[in-house]
Structure formats: structure tokens, C-alpha cells
């Protein structure tokens, strides 16, 4: 079992942010975590990474039960690509250094790397279509290029679990499709980690994400096989608005069914 969460609760200032969340992620599965703003996705990820502790319930990640294990060690096996990581990196570092620093999970490259590390970094950058960027500094990269560099960085440590936290934020439709193509390749690799893809948008859910968890107001609204979760009926109840989900080439597209356009109602 990669993740085993049983009845996890998290309270803050008398407010229940996560309510008895159950989630089991098995080896070989790739999950999408879908929820609107404020539904508790980041809180749940912080819990999986051991940055916050459940007020109640139990969490086991990669076979390590929280409370009985050094979380710093556990975090080395988890890659987490997020916007907050982007903000912590040094813009003046080259893309290659950023990828290499993933080996030590450090911000900045302080440890020695050898030719083998460099070869691994270049091979990852090639497979993510960013080999031509090796000597470019991070602050000169576009958002889509940054995301590829960060995914390559996360893979440097050969994680068992890779969390892609809203990787398509800020991308135009073409950059988004390009990045999704790269993510598809990462997931298809023989040595692929278990991937959790976090998003607000069902259009981004690739067919390789065979499982989906819907989080609504801190509660698991539904979870299971993606094609069973992403139906018009489930999604209409999930969003509290009538919507239609259309499946095309294994991807799902969402249409909001309103008699009045949302943007004209007061
Ligand atoms: N440290 C905290 N103290 C108090 N409330 C918090 C704290 N962290 C999160 N919350 C609240 O918990 C709820 C869930 O927040 P969270 O960031 O987990 O949602 P999210 O699904 O990741 O949202 P988004 O998609 O906007 O990133 C929000 O109402 C938020 O204000």
C-alpha cells in the first residue's frame, strides 16, 4: 500500500478542515485528486508529507505509520511539485543545477554530484523535453518549461510517490497539452512512481489516472475508478450545478448546463 488514510480529521480554530477522510492508494495505481478551491487538497497533501498531523485518525505512507517513523527520511521518497516549491527556488540557478539538487531534495546545490548524477539529470531532462534548457537560468524559463524542470528534479531522487500539485496552473492550452504529454510519458515508464495529480479541472485528467478522489468541503465526496466517478450525475452533485461530462479520446470535458449564463446572474 502506498497511502493508507483512515478516518483522518484536521481541526483548526474549532473548524473541521478535513472530516474523517479515508483514502487507500495501492501500488500500480495513479490517482487524480479533484476539488474546488478550499476543499482541503493542500491540507491533505501536507498530511501525507507529514507537515501536519491528523487531530484524529491514522496515516500510513509507503508502509510507514506516522508517529513511529522519521518523517524526514520518508519525505526523501516523496516528490512534491507545487507552486510553493517554485517560489522557494533560486531564479539565478541553471535548470541543470535545479534538476541535480533534486537528488538531495535541497533548495540550492551544495552537495557534490558526479558524472553519473549529471547523466541521470540529462536523461530525465531529455525525456521531459527540456534538455535544451540545461544552462538557462530558472528565472528565464516559461511556466511550462519550469514545470518540466521541476518534474525532472523530483524524479532525480527516484521517489516512490510523486505528487503533481496543479502543474498546469498558468499554462496556455498548448503548453498545457504539451506538459500533459510529458506527464503521460513519465507515468508510462517502467520505473514510474505512483503519481497523484491534483487539479480543479477534469479536462486535465489523463487516461493513465485510473482512479479519482473527489474532495468537497473537507470530505471525500466519492472515490474509485475514474470513469465511474467522472459522470455527469456525480459531477453535477459534486459541483452543486447541473453539468454534463463528455468523454472524448479517453479525456473528459465538462460543460456547465445553465439556462441563464452564470456571468449574467446577479
Ligand atoms: N493553517 C490553517 N489555519 C486555518 N485554516 C486553514 C489552514 N490551512 C487551511 N485552512 C483552511 O482549510 C480549508 C482548506 O484549505 P486547503 O488549502 O487545504 O484547500 P485547497 O483544496 O488546497 O484549495 P486551493 O485549491 O485553493 O489550493 C480552507 O478553508 C482554508 O482556509
UniProtKB/TrEMBL annotation:
Domain ABC transporter: 3-242
InterPro entries: AAA+_ATPase (IPR003593), ABC_transporter-like_ATP-bd (IPR003439), ABC_transporter-like_CS (IPR017871), Metal_Ion_Import_ABC (IPR050153), P-loop_NTPase (IPR027417)
SUPFAM superfamilies registered for this protein in UniProt: P-loop containing nucleoside triphosphate hydrolases
Entry keyword annotation includes Nucleotide-binding: yes
Pfam families: ABC_tran (PF00005)
GO molecular function terms listed in the Swiss-Prot or TrEMBL record: ATP binding; ATP hydrolysis activity
UniProt entry keywords in alphabetical sequence: ATP-binding, Nucleotide-binding, Transport
PROSITE patterns (alphabetical): ABC_TRANSPORTER_1, ABC_TRANSPORTER_2
Family: Belongs to the ABC transporter superfamily.
Protein name (Swiss-Prot/TrEMBL): ABC transporter ATP-binding protein YlmA
Protein source organism: Paenibacillus radicis
Name of the gene encoding the protein in the UniProt record: ylmA
